[in-house]
Amino acid sequence: MTCKDHSNYVDKAKVNQEYPRRWKNLILLAPMPSAGGMADVFLAKQGAGLSLSRLVVVKRIRAGFRSEIVWLEMFKNEAQAMLSLKSPHIVQTFDAQFSDEEPYLVMEYVEGPSFKELFDQLQKSKSQIPLNMFLELLKQCAQALQVAHEFKDPQLGVLSPIIHRDISPQNMILSVEGYVKLIDFGIAKSNALPGMTQVGQVKGKLTYMSPEQFEDRPLDGRTDLFSLGIVFWELLTQQRLMSDTATSQEPTIAKIVKGNLKIKSPQDLTGVPPPIANLVMKLLNLNVEQRFASARQLIGEIENLQLTYKLEKNGESVKDFVAMHFSHSINTKKKFLQQLLQAANFNRETIGNVDSNQNPEITKLSSPNYAPRIQENFESGRCLRR
Question: How many domains does the chain divide into?
């Protein structure tokens, strides 16, 4: 994977000219993709020294959006959702600040490919995803959604489901340890998290929306299950359900809204066992009442299939799959990350004693010994991806 193919993953000029740099109690190592538009995203180091530090992701709202109430509320919703939800399959949030001049989140850095990369790899290699891995990944995603959908307001003690509303391959990470991590609750909706969605305003990625999202109807957890069904239908079939081009999307969206879209069963396209194909098709039912009633019900059905087909229920097979198919890109990234960390620690004593009157946001870390090697990585086509 080269920077030529993915030039937006790291700003090569900024890494040498502006980064690494100190910001608050962190060291920002490099800019990362921020497709949402309202925030800048950085890879950062938290803690002192190489052995005591950890890699984190910092999401900081951009200056142009800090005075906009709608965007501030959306960012606040994400912070509250991420801090409230505790699951091994939801990315962990370590710190959040949304009341000062620079609202930000500090989140767990997950090493591994996104589901988009997983789809691309399967399509490129023309490989069928192993059924044990398919069911395990689907179950882990459902477990993440179960936590969100069964969330209780800690103050009132009443059920206040958090609906993600943006389940898509870009927001699902497959860690090198073999676990799914759900990210980006930026447009989540809950009674406990007062949202800013206005009537007639649709939020989410068009290619993964449910019929009720398109029609701006009241949503519950089943909208996330429909989006999850699209992701896993695509993994099974190695096809896109809906094209990214507007001209191709419009007729498909119209059919989804009218309830007459004909979705081919994965059994017809790939020959997977009927019970597994039926499970996916139930997720994709255009009639919300005909889908699984909840993520909890979906998990029960998956576990029944795992027992029926005697498939592994742990994440080991997933871990092996990631190592087999993504080892080169992961190792390349590890080397690059190590160089960034070494650059950030080159003059640790100096950067640890920054004058308190100096603005930490503009404290550039001087690391001349490592800058050429970082530059060399970019010149040779290596790059960083979340």
Answer: 2
Does pTM surpass 0.85?
A: no
Domain of residue 43 covers 12-110+327-366
- State the Cα–Cα distance between residues 251 and 361, nearest whole angstrom: 48
Q: What's residue 367's pLDDT?
A: 40
Residue 307: other Cβ atoms inside 10 A: 10
Specify the pLDDT at position 359.
Answer: 41
- Give which of 180, 233, 176, 230 is closest to 207, Cα–Cα: 230
Among the listed residues 75, 97, 55, the one whose alpha carbon sits nearest the alpha carbon of residue 184: 75
- Of 11, 120, 166, 184, the active-site residue reads 166
Contact assessment for residue 28 and residue 21, using Cβ atoms and an 8 Å cutoff: yes
Same domain? 230 vs 273: yes
Q: Is 355 annotated in the active site?
A: no
Does 169 lie in the same domain as 50?
no
Cβ atoms within 10 Å of 229's Cβ, excluding its own? 26
CA distance 305 to 135: 8
Residue entry with tokens 């010149």: 379
In a domain, 372, yes or no: no
**CATH at 16:** 3.30.200.20
pLDDT over 50 (residue 38):
yes
Same domain, 269 and 236: yes
Q: What is the pLDDT of residues 199-233, one digit of tens each?
A: 334 455 788 999 999 988 999 999 999 999 999 99
In a domain, 338, yes or no: yes
